[in-house]
Amino acid sequence: MATLPSLPALAALFARIGVISFGGVAGQLALMHDEVVTRRRWLDEATYLRALNFCMLLPGPEAQQLATFIGWRLHGWRGALVTGTLFILPGALIVGALSWVAAAHGEAPLVAALFDGVKPVVVGIVAAALWRLGRKTLTGWAPAALALAALLALQVLHAPFPLVVIGAGLIGFLAGRFGSSVPAPAEPATGSKGTVARHSARVLGLAALFVALWAVPVFAVIALAGGIFPDLARLFTTSAFVTFGGAYAVLPYIADQAVAVQGWLTPGEMVDGLALAETTPGPTILVLEFVGFLAAWKQPGALEPALAGVLGALLVTYVTFLPSFLFILAGSPLIEHLAKAPAATAALKAITAAVVGVMANLALFFGEAVLVPGGAVDWRAVAVAGVTVAAMLRFNVGVQWLVLAGAGLGLIGG
Question: Domain residues of the chain, as ranges?
Fold first, then answer.
């Protein structure tokens, strides 16, 4: 392995990665692998893959968590804070600025035309992502049944998204625990009780620290602004602990709460937010920042709308990503054991299957809002969505280029 980098060198690399990390999670994982493993050899291949498998077991954005792990492995908790933060900071700043444009000028003809052109592209992106994940995941009757059950639970029973995810994970965990033919990893031979006790104490200390890091700024914002902010803190803290499967999995839950339950946004505005997140660097889950900005802008209480929007975006971004740092700092020392645990792996597979159903629910939500507005089919939007699906699945065109093309069509059509 090459000489380990200094903390400033590590920060410089991840500041650069944060700026150029387009292309969704697959592109971001490939970029970090190229920079950290192939070019600089700061991590070996086996460590990178074990860390990736571990991050896939966790709720939250796996690419940002992997960036956090790389920093932890190279420079401890300081490195984790640097890499995890710099990975999302450029995208968060850009999404924040674009959220202001959408809120302040969304009804301007030019901006409206841009968003109208992008919306059917986003529907196509979600449909293509659904096809890819379903083809990879639904390889037998059991995963297909879980996916269908998740879709029906959301569409027919209107079950809460966290309950669907937790239920799928529990089914998978029990199947892996009692039905797996793969033996569980052996316990450490010597000193295991002392090791477990020390790690348990460390995790409890970290949990207490993160509770304080959550509570102090959140309660300060609530005390300062009141109004919508307690609901924002509650919703997005909850979503941070159940976002297995990334942004596409959590969006139906957020859309249901923000659109149907709270009435903060319209379905079209949810599509706009996803379009912005798809065309900016950083994890797609930054779409939640857009939701927080727009929700607080519309219900500012005693604050100016712009200030309320910024505060809402900051609050949502903070509570969304804070748990990821806890998961990595607490779990990374046990990465070898956890990543190979059959029950944990089975739980992840079951959740991934259920996420296919969740994504199907999202596709239906977006499709109804964009392709059948007001009950009448918009055939132009259907054609654009279809071309988008073909471009992604047949020619592997990057989503950012498709969104830009949709924006251009919107300008021409507008």
Answer: 108-183+194-414
